[in-house]
Specification:
By secondary structure, this protein is mainly β. Helices cover 8% and strands 57% of the residues. A 4-stranded antiparallel beta sheet has the order 3-2-1-28, with no helix packed on it. The longest helix is centred in the N-terminal third of the chain and has 24 residues.
């Protein structure tokens, strides 16, 4: 009888240990957005740090105060994108990723279903699938990355090696335009590059390098043209270039005496953060309207275009305040109305990376 009792207890202990291990290793963040999002919630914030697995989920209200705070095992969540049905958030140094749907369901996943691989340098939603460019290495005198397309159930649909370090992706008519640079070890230099990739035939259509610039980033499509920021390593200022959408040939370039930090296109209208102001630009890339003046010490962090509104987070640096961290801005392009929510944080909480979802998305 004693032996039987001992056997039962031992079995229960083993089952308990296995259960605990499963919970520890589980991809589930154990966060139920259905229960924690209230009518007072304004933004869902996901924060993480570069080198440590000590991220967290926050909810802030209209006053910018934290009303929900939970630590989670996340590291370096830096890239994000949205579609009508999903938000995706991805890690740079680590292959940890989060998918949140419009019904407030959360799922974590790894590209190629293996967390040990590198993270991504950019991510994009495509027909409720996730397109990521996984960070690679300099091999055979070129920079090798891995293009991966997988569905929400983690089935890998495309896996192809490409020669680029990718900073951005835009997709139109099933064609992915991948922007970034290529690096040649023997020349110790990098060159801006664009790859056109057909997501239906799984083939590269065209690859174009521009030796004039070191990197392309922040592209938008306006009509049959691509606008993007081009950088030169020895020039403090950027250029804004126009590129033909079909041929990838350079149409024109504009020297920016004042840097543009971010550009958006909504209904062929160009909005930007330029000269530390939130503005609308005309087709000559001159300021047409000014909406909001950012603080002098500000840094663009992340943004989304949803329902004819631009939502963005601007990080501010205030040496006199241990609480104020920045502003969430909502701009309605139909009414030109701006709504500012100040973000007040715990002075002891370190948040190197911040991405977010407007609660309006779930309504």
């Amino acid at each position: 009888m004693k032996k039987c009792k001992f056997s039962i207890i031992s079995t229960l202990i083993i089952i308990l240990i296995i259960t605990i291990i499963k919970i520890i290793n589980s991809k589930d963040l154990n966060i139920d957005l259905h229960n924690i999002i209230t009518k007072d919630s304004k933004y869902l914030v996901i924060h993480s740090n570069l080198l440590e697995k000590n991220g967290g989920f926050l909810l802030i209200n209209n006053e910018g105060n934290i009303i929900f705070d939970k630590k989670v095992n996340l590291q370096d969540i830096l890239y994000s994108d949205s579609s009508d049905n999903y938000f995706v958030f991805s890690g740079s140094r680590r292959n940890n990723n989060i998918l949140i749907d419009k019904n407030k369901n959360i799922k974590t996943f790894s590209f190629l279903n293996e967390s040990k691989y590198n993270g991504v340098t950019t991510v994009k939603m495509y027909k409720d699938r996730i397109l990521g460019i996984m960070n690679g290495n300099l091999l055979e005198n070129t920079y090798k990355s891995l293009l991966v397309l997988q569905d929400k159930d983690e089935n890998v649909l495309i896996k192809e090696e490409i020669d680029i370090w990718a900073s951005d992706i835009i997709i139109q008519n099933d064609i992915a335009y991948i922007f970034g640079f290529n690096r040649r070890a023997e020349e110790n230099n990098s060159y801006s590059k664009i790859i056109m990739y057909d997501l239906v035939t799984n083939k590269i259509i065209k690859e174009v390098e521009d030796l004039t610039y070191n990197q392309y980033l922040n592209p938008i499509i306006v009509g049959n043209e691509i606008f993007c920021i081009a950088r030169k390593s020895r020039d403090e200022n950027n250029y804004l270039v126009k590129i033909n959408l079909n041929t990838l040939n350079l149409i024109s370039k504009h020297y920016l005496s004042d840097n543009i930090d971010k550009i958006w296109n909504i209904e062929d209208k160009i909005y930007a953060i330029k000269e530390n102001k939130f503005v609308k630009l005309n087709k000559n890339l001159e300021i047409e309207e000014e909406y909001y003046k950012l603080k002098d010490v500000s840094e663009y962090s992340s943004s989304y275009v949803l329902n004819n509104c631009i939502y963005l987070y601007i990080r501010n640096y205030d040496e006199n305040s241990n609480i104020y961290l920045g502003d969430f801005i909502k701009f309605n392009i139909n009414t030109n109305e701006i709504e500012i929510t100040k973000f007040n944080k715990d002075k002891n909480k370190i948040m190197e990376n911040i991405v977010f979802i407007p609660i309006d998305y779930f309504k």
